[in-house]
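Second attempt. The first submission of CBM6 domain-containing protein had a stray character pasted in from the spreadsheet, which I only caught after the job came back as garbage. Lesson logged: always re-copy from the clean sequence file. Corrected sequence (699 aa) follows.
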Amino acid sequence: MSETYQKNGPRFGIIAASLLVATGLLACGGGGKQASNTTAEPAPSEIPTTDAENSAPTEIATGQAGADNPTAPAADGIRPVRELLGANPPPINDYSRTHVYADLVKQARSFGSASAPWDEKATLGDDGWPIGDFGIFLMSDQKEISGIAGTYTVSFDGQATVKLDGSPKTTIQNKRYDSSTNRTKLELVLAPGAGRLALSFTQTGAGIKNLQVIRPGYDASNPPLFTRTFIDHVQRFGTLRFMDWLRTNNNPVTSWDTRTDPQRVRTNTGKGVPWEHIVALANQTGQHVWINVPVSADDDYVRQLARLLKGQLNASSVIYIEYSNELWNGQFQQHSSNKALAAEEVKADLNSPLAYDGSQDPNQWMYRRIAKRGKEISDIFRSVFGNDSMMSRVRPVFSTQVVLPYVSEIGLNFIAAVYGPPSQYFYAMAGAPYFNLGSQQRVEGLSTDQVLQAMEQSVTDLPRSNQFEKNQALASWYGLRWLAYEGGTDTFGPGSLGAKKAANLDPRMQGICERYLSTWYQSGGQLFMWFNAGAGNWDTQYGAWELSTDLAIIDTPKIRCMDQTLAGPTPSLEGRNKAPGSFDAYAYAGNFPPYSKGSMDQVRYLQAGKFNDYLVQAAHAGSYQLILNAATASGGNRLDISVNGSRIANAFELSGTGWGAFTEQAPITLKLRAGFNTLRIATNNSNGGYDLQRLTLKP
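This time the job returned cleanly.
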């Protein structure tokens, strides 16, 4: 997930959810899930105190990343849907209902002692195999899950006494040893209803090696890396994001030598899966990959990663690159790590770019560093892949908090001011817009109908609660696409658990889900990474994020939603302010009727150096005439007008006959791209003030 959800049960570590502020509740994860017990948006002390609406350095001309429009449909009006809907595979662990590996050892906990296989205290050699006797905890929480019952083939180099440990409805049979190959084999027979599997290995001598526990239905002499059910499930998506596979949250890796090396790490660990497994999956399925770089990974790590991907990943796979996960989210260790790294940088160099403007605010440095490190990672990948691959095959993504676009503004404004156009370094910005139950998220006694009604309302409110216009306006201003690194159904938290599960299985959920995704695409959003693919346990307070409760159940409302959306076409864009057309001057990004006095004053009393952004949807690319309907009591009121980061009118002086007497101003010629554009109107000079009533755009 992203912004915030935490599993507190046995072996449940922190898993990202997204932080979504809606109806007074915090949402979680790499974007917008309902907050768990501890997640919160950054405390007021960690939010820089400058004006959130007008914090950008005035009129930085950033240009564009090319003539293509990040929000425009394809020439035939239909964007390729498989490129617009991806998914986050769930974490790999022994209790997951998404069975990824054919070999259970790869999902197991780290090797434990022979007397307590779950304690992860075995002594390991340099090759990752135990020295001496040990135990292994392979599987838990699998009772009544499809594909568990059957015969598993166990094999290893060496000899040992193998016993079951707390593994009901399981028997061992046909143990044999081949002295010519030094290989022991045996079978585990799991009866229906078995759900836990742990083994102890004693009398191992110096230790055994090359242990495999192969699931039923696979050739134990030549097993595949991934299960057929997993491949069949995720194959529908064009892109997979591996944040949880890589254990991005709280990841301790700093150097390439400390990564998960498949030649030295044999089980599931807190450092995540080997990069080679991600490459193997993409090469098998032909999918694109979205990867997360650990927060403290050094330059050499990033360079070695880029070289591995260039050398081993099939050339048709696109690579989305994200720096860590939710670095703004105080629940995760990477938040404090990034903040400390920013402070260390400024302390070591008082001329650090993080303090280019003299800022002494550690929180400002922290948010700027997210963008700075993302830019540095982009530069390293450029040095490996070359210029021609950047923003085409290699797509760095700047991810922050969807409900607080100001965090994105801090980072992108910093890049623009210090390094130049962000579009030179980033392909897109991204957030995580979840839908949830709003104020009823943790209420007991709800019916299934009430849960569905609350989620329907959340989808209706989504464009405003998740600041869609402000996010799209910021992306358009800097020539970036707008993506969702996570998103989906958020039922996290105690209260009405039975109704929440029933709602996710109700046929009406399909329609809610389809309307949710349509709302995203209509608002200009592009690649949407559903959180999560796979199957999960929906009987707990930890949420029903996944698409099913069992990978064998393939006809669920959310799976039907995915497949229907993937069948396309995607809906056309739907913006408020259209060109050609005329719209209210108070309809700036994020401001909706009924307009408050404060929001209207932001137009009427816009001080010098301040601005308002208007998100404008152009039917066609080309030249338009902008006509302002304005009132002013005196001369000398001048405006600077820009489009998509480029100034098109300097110190445009308004004419008028008196306050309250609105007059059409001389037309201003500007060029718009097909799709969404950001029109910025800034006060250059105020002499007694002015008021805008309407903005008109004519071909």
